[in-house]
Amino acid sequence: MAWTLWHLGYPDQAFMKSQEALNLAQALAHPYSLAYAQLFAAIYYQLRREVQATREQAEAQIALSTEQRFAFWAA
């Protein structure tokens, strides 16, 4: 839904949906879902030109993916 909102021209709503997905993945404690949500959160930060937040989210995603051996997401 976040991607759809972004492409329809609702960046703030898209970002909020992305954050909801990230929060849900964290609450579920499901590593694969969390890695996926972290990746897209990093992308949204990048699209919003928030350099530090992008770096932090990307580094967290890479660390989790490396730890869990999610080679695709770690790359």
Question: What does this entry look like structurally?
Answer:
The chain is an all-alpha fold and 75 residues long. The model has no long low-confidence stretch (mean pLDDT 92). The protein has helices at residues 2-7, 11-28, 31-47, 51-68, 71-74. It has one domain (2-74). The radius of gyration is 12 Å and the shape is globular. It contains five helices and no strands. Helix 2 (11-28) packs antiparallel against helix 3 (31-47) and helix 3 (31-47) runs antiparallel to helix 4.
C-alpha Rg, in Å? 12 Å
- Shape designation: globular
Percentage of residues assigned to helices: over 70%
The total strand number stands at 0
Distance between the termini: 25 Å
Q: Which class do the helix and strand fractions yield? A: mainly alpha
Secondary-structure element order, as H and E? HHHHH
Topology of this protein?
Elements: H1 2-7, H2 11-28, H3 31-47, H4 51-68, H5 71-74
Helix pairs in contact: 2-3, 3-4
Q: Which descriptors apply to this entry?
A:
75 residues; mainly alpha; 5 helices
Summarize the structure.
The protein has helices at residues 2-7, 11-28, 31-47, 51-68, 71-74. It is mainly alpha-helical and 75 residues long. The mean pLDDT is 92.
